[in-house]
Amino acid sequence: MPNLYFCQPHAQNQGMLRAVLTLEDCKHLPPDSVTYVGDHFPSIADNPTKMADFAVLSVSANEADAEWRSGFYRFDADLMELNSVLQRLAR
Q1: Whole domain around residue 56: which residue ranges?
Q2: How many domains does the chain have?
């Protein structure tokens, strides 16, 4: 199952697991803020004090499909907004 991590560079938080999702759940994440970043988890080491918070979705090879290929996706969306989506999915 895909994992969603919240990253907060100002707090030197490299990524905290926030949710374990199904591929169906991933359809509810904001599509306009997602970027496929490849096979490596994005690093905050370059300039942690000037980067905004972001989320990372990890999709493994055995769960990838036509819509979500294997690798990591970066969501440049407000973490509170993403958290609201997760809360709605949990209901």
Answers
A1: 3-90
A2: 1
